Amino acid sequence: MKNGNAPSGMSEAEKQTFIRRRRGRNLAMLFALIGLVVLFYFIALARMQVS
């Protein structure tokens, strides 16, 4: 696989669309994980304040 690891057998336009969509999914996953980390951090802080 070349050209950004897009599957072979695609036209150049299809490869670019595939790469753009995958990048969008990766960014969405990144923001979701960061959000969970922040949520868990604040939950931990709140639990320490209660104790």
Task: Explain what this protein looks like in three dimensions.
There is one protein chain. The chain has 51 residues and is mainly alpha-helical. It has one domain (1-51). The protein has one helix at 12-50. The chain crosses the membrane at residues 27-46. This is Protoheme IX farnesyltransferase. It comes from Teichococcus globiformis.
Q: Which percent range fits the helix content?
A: over 70%
Instruction: Return residue spans where pLDDT drops below 50 for at least 5 consecutive residues.
Output: none
Distance from N terminus to C terminus (CA atoms, Å) equals 54 Å
Structural domains: how many = 1
Strand tally is 0
Structural class: mainly alpha
Count of DSSP helices?
A: 1
Sheet with the most strands, sense and barrel status = none
Radius of gyration computed on alpha carbons: 19 Å
Mean pLDDT: 90
Q: How does the overall form come out from the CA principal axes?
A: rod-shaped
Query: How much beta, percentage-wise?
Result: under 5%
SSE series = H
Key features of this structure:
mainly alpha
Describe, in short, the structure shown.
By secondary structure, the chain is mostly helical.
Give the topology.
Layout: H1 12-50
Organism: Teichococcus globiformis
Keywords: Membrane, Transmembrane, Transmembrane helix
Protein name: Protoheme IX farnesyltransferase
